[in-house]
Specification:
Blueprint: H1 19-26, H2 37-59, H3 75-108, H4 117-131, H5 134-156, E1 165-168, E2 171-174, H6 176-211, H7 233-237, H8 239-259, H9 268-283, H10 290-320, H11 334-350, H12 359-370, H13 383-394
Antiparallel strand pairs: 1-2
């Protein structure tokens, strides 16, 4: 057995690297293993949300009826900066721990042979270099201010008098709070989200590189994924990112319902499309192993088929056609148990999936992704109406 690669790469992580991580380290907002999570969350939320409250309060737009949408009534803003943003920060710790464990399993389970180890090391080195690239994070910042700001101003911002803008014909004029919102708060959130998209792309790239190696897969493995069942853990590693993304979408829909006069059912296509898209995108990286799983299954079916046929023929000759010695008792014979065990192994091979996840993983991911949209049901009926209906239905 070769030496586990993670002994020489103990810092393998999709998270522990890059300029922002170094800033967190130097400002004592993070430890080397992502400690001080609450401190990071409070500081980043404070920069993104607190100035909006203070600036809108100074202008008199925080509460009241002076504007169509006061700051305290802007659900989309509070969801984005007080719920989704801290979830994105917390997701770093989850992804770091789970992905580190998943990568280590390739070696610990003997899936990487000694002849493939140099290429496996190269895949890790390439991933770490890209993760640490300051050019990429700088490009993300440029993307946020060039494209992200345009999208926010034209597609997301409500074209109505609010705490962050006033309507001037077809244009919106930003208030002091609006300038902080447009050029500090929203870019912070968009950068954190784009950074997660980049990390997810890195994960896809790493798995693609590994899937090109000759892995030692066993279609008779009990996990029904030829030994790759552990990869389903990565689905749950990224589930917090999907939860945050769903919260933003739900907050945006809530704003459209409350302030643009639209109904929840008018968003059913968008919600369903959102769920399908992000679930599929999360699962696609694991599908790169499908060709190897297919080859492993076909090979095992051929080999087990011949073995099962040979054993069944010999068993038939010995016990069915009377070839067994008279002195050998049938009761308690290990031949019967061996036949049953062989049949179970063949069944496992036949049931081997062509993807390293099952329908339960998909359903759980769908449930997590859909959770942020459940509170939107309250826009269709109140809790009082539901409680009254429940009481009438019971009594």
């Amino acid at each position: 057995m070769s030496t586990p690669i993670l002994e020489s790469r103990p810092d393998f992580s999709l998270v522990l690297g890059g300029p922002l991580f170094q800033i967190f380290l130097r400002t004592h907002l993070s430890g080397s293993a992502l400690e001080l999570l609450h401190r990071r969350m409070i500081v980043v939320m404070g920069i993104a949300w607190l100035p909006l409250l203070l600036l809108s309060a100074l202008r008199g737009d925080a509460v009241g009826d002076e504007v169509s949408i006061a700051f305290v009534d802007d659900i989309e803003t509070h969801v984005r900066f007080l719920i989704a943003l801290p979830i994105l920060i917390a997701a770093e710790l989850v992804v770091h721990r789970r992905i580190h464990h998943v990568v280590s399993q390739f070696v610990e389970r003997g899936l990487i042979g000694s002849e493939q180890m140099p290429e496996f090391r190269q895949a890790i080195d390439t991933t770490l270099r890209l993760r640490n690239s300051p050019i990429i994070e700088l490009a993300l910042i440029v993307l946020v201010y060039a494209v992200g700001h345009w999208i926010w101003r034209n597609e997301i911002a409500l074209h109505a008098t609010s705490w962050y803008a006033s309507q001037d014909g077809a244009q919106i004029q930003l208030t002091p709070a609006g300038y902080w919102h447009a050029f500090v708060s929203v870019p912070i959130f968009q950068f954190m989200l784009m950074r997660w998209y980049f990390r997810f792309a890195l994960w896809f790239w790493f798995l693609f590189r590994v899937s090109r190696l000759q892995l030692r897969l066993l279609a008779s493995h009990a996990d029904r994924a030829a030994g790759l069942g552990f990869l389903s853990e990565s689905i749950y590693a990224f589930s917090l990112v999907l939860l945050a993304q769903g919260a933003v979408a739900a907050g945006l829909i809530a704003s459209k319902i409350l302030y643009a006069g639209r109904g929840l059912l008018s968003f059913k296509v968008e919600i369903l499309s959102f769920l399908i898209f992000f679930i599929v995108v999360t699962l696609i990286p694991l599908m790169v192993f499908t060709p190897q799983l297919l080859r492993a299954k076909r090979k095992a079916l051929r080999h087990f088929g011949r073995l099962v046929n040979r054993y069944s023929d010999e068993f038939n000759q010995k016990w069915v056609e009377g070839g067994a010695p008279q002195s050998e008792p049938l009761l308690g014979s290990s031949d019967i148990q061996s036949l049953a065990d062989l049949g179970n192994s063949y069944s496992v091979v036949r049931e081997t999936r062509l993807v390293p996840f099952d329908i339960k993983d998909v359903m759980r991911l769908a449930a997590i992704s859909a959770t942020p949209f459940l509170p939107l049901l309250l826009t269709m009926f109140s809790l009082d109406d539901f409680a009254t209906f429940l009481i009438e239905a019971i009594f």
